Structures are given as C-alpha cells and as structure tokens.
Amino acid sequence: MHFFHIFSIFVTLIVIMDTTKTKQQFITAAKTLFVRKGYDETTMIDIAQEAGLSRRTLYSYFESKVEVFQAVINSEVEKVLTQLEEIARQNIPVQQKIVEFVFGYFRLIKETVDRNGTLRSGFFRNSWGLEHFRKAFDLKQKQMLQDIISEGKTTGVFDVVSVRRTAEIMHNCMRGFEAPYIRGKIWQGNTREEIRFEARRLIYGALGYNSETNKQ
Questions:
Q1: Which of 1.10.357.10, 3.30.10.20, 1.10.287.70, 1.10.3720.10 is the CATH number of 70-211?
Q2: What is the pTM of this model?
Q3: Which top CATH class is 1-63?
Q4: pLDDT digits (tens, 9 = 90+) for 57-82
C-alpha cells in the first residue's frame, strides 16, 4: 500500500509538470503572435498552430483569447513583481530602499514594454491601463510600498501618520508617471541625475524624511 501511495504521488507530480509545460507553450506562442500580428489579428487557431498543439488542447486550458491574453499579461507581471520583491528585501537603509524601489519600478515597467516590440504601441499600452488586468499587480505593489514605509516608520526614519494612506498616495502618483516615463517625455530637457534628485526630494518630503537630521 505504501508503494502504491508513493507511486500515485509521483504520477500526479508528472501530470502537473506536463500540464504546466503545455500551458506555458500556449502562453509563449500567444505572446509571440501578439507581438508579430497584434492581438486583434491573432486567433485561437493561430495560437494552437504556433504552439504545435491542437486547438482542442488549447481550449482545455483557455476558454477564450481573452483568457490567453490575461495569462500572457500575468507572466510579464510576475517577472516585474519578482524583481520588485528582490529590491524590497535588500538589506540597505530604508531611505535608500524606497528610492530604489520607485526607480526600479519604472525601469522594470519600461524594460517590459520595450522588450515586447510592437506590443509597445498597443498590447501593453492597453493592458496596463485596464483595471481588471492590473488589479492583482497593484495590490502587491502597494503592499510592498506599505512594508517599506512601515519599516521606515517603525525605525523612526520616516515621519508619516498613516502608512496605508501614504502608500496609496505614492502608488497613485507612480501610476500617473508610468506613461511619461515609458515614452521618455519625463527626460526631455532634464538629465537623469536631475530627475532623480528632484524625485528623491519629493519622496523624502512625502515621507517626512530629512536627510540632514537623519545622517548615519
């Protein structure tokens, strides 16, 4: 009985791994087609053919092209979140961490858009702006902001009344700067050093941090 229990677990793991691999094949194929042809011109038949699998298999994983689209978005979002989490976990002064988090966020978003070629003008422009496509992403990003701000408040580095409200305001400000940053408009007439300097002053001002009175 013990042997068959272990064998059953082993078989289950193989099935899960195979299912994950097949699903990823479809996501990769869809992303390739969305870049090459655009979302509107891509069909479920195209995705199945690009993946080298049957349309029936495709529909066993995704009920519609919208679901495939969501999966592609999620795969890109997870890459961004993973790297943001790495920044948030860094063992560095919290005042440095919050600045690195904000600029890391914009850098990662821009890299994601740029990496996806023709998605720049349509696919990602639309998806990042649609609430239902980015809701989970926003919640996780706000939680990371809250954790960093809470760390600063607890250690006496930041002087904020409400960690939650401050994180919410910062999150919405960051969203407002996404499009200008991606399009490069924010840099017009300014150097990166100048923008970073002014942005740091704004961030520190919002968090009640004084670099002169908080010198290490």
A1: 1.10.357.10
A2: 0.75
A3: mainly alpha
A4: 999 999 999 889 888 888 888 888 99
